[in-house]
Amino acid sequence: MPTHWTDHYYEDKDGNKCLDLHHYSESGAMRKVKSFLYHMKREYLRSDKSRAHRFVDIITGVGKHSWRHYSVIKEDVEDFLDRKDYSYEWDHGGGRVTIDFYYSI
To answer: Deepest of 11, 15, 28, 95, by most Cβ within 10 A of its Cβ?
Structure first.
């Protein structure tokens, strides 16, 4: 069970900070992503690069309930992560991405 610490940010069972983008528009989701990554990266750097702050997750969903039947937000997030040279890996279902700040700085 996630422990909520803001509206759409929470800590998962592994202690990773997560951002859930379900129910956001494309523009709203990208504003949240940029803000989330900015704050989490600052937290990581302030923690002297602690392992506890190294990984964050963004849940985009796979677009199952989208009228397009794919996730535009997922594509936008991936494009942003590539442009900003973040190190990341998608889960096997493709609706959750884990960002590794250690390899992104």
So the answer is: 95
